[in-house]
Amino acid sequence: xxxxxRNLITDVAGLRVxxxxxxxxxxxxxxxxxxxxxxxxxxxxxxxPGTRETDLLAPDKLVQEVDALVLSxxxxxGLDAPSGVADALRAMGRGFAVGDQRVPIVPGxxxxxxxxxxxxxxxxxxxxxxxxxxxxxxxxDFSLGSxxxxxxxASYRVKGGLGSASVVLTNGITVGALVAVNSVGSPLxxxxxxxxxxxxxxxxxxxxxxxxxQFDPFHEPFCGKRLGEATTIAIIATDAVLTKAQATRxxxxxxxxxxxxxxxxxxxxxxxxxxAAATGARPLTDPLGDTFALGHAAAVCLARAVARGVFAAxxxxxxxxxxWRDI
Length: 327
Hints:
alpha+beta, 11 strands, 20% helix, 24% strand
């Protein structure tokens, strides 16, 4: 297992990521779009999720593929971001065919960033425009940290951010992760600047500090947020051929990565959610062994992406928290 060429989710060929943000509001949106529709699944483990069109991702539902996935700030207001993406995709002639109409399928999830120091006194919900702009910006290269859905994200002690990572397995399958970190729990060990995800780190991608020499794994964490004020939302992608059920299982396994990188994760106050995307470019040669490997790779990749997002966060006027680099 080794990182992909970009160490981004876009190492999965056929996928692009776009970010758009408003630094006055301290918020933004991120879109993952395929060159063509792709199989998707989802698994929710947090207690306070905010979602759009996740029910249709169940294996027994009619629609088998989606056009894009959206991660956004804005709490419930941010659920308008997928609408902007859907409008733009429809204008391109994309979407699920119903008679002579096309209906783009764009599931999305949101995080809470409404009390992060930005000006939220908008006259019109900005997220539909942010979604459209994010799609327009989509490409194989994109920035991490305080961009897109990670613009106004916060974690315990430090700013959150948008993170990504990838791996290529020995069987040739590529796995990538994209995450907006906005957690109740901490990505850092105790009062240090060491990441919980350190055992998963590759090539010193978030500082190479390792774990601290001494720490208390039984320390009872402090809860610094209230119900609905958090949520870490993520996408795991692969170029493997997967069914919706297999994609859902990969999303489920990926949650192990959140638990390795954020302590605690999956709390009643977080809406922790992982989407899965499978482009279907590479058939499985060993359906059992390959799906086993995909789950492990997804968890490792997501843990690294969490740390990379926090590591890359940058300071901005009016911030209520320091960045990792400041501590």
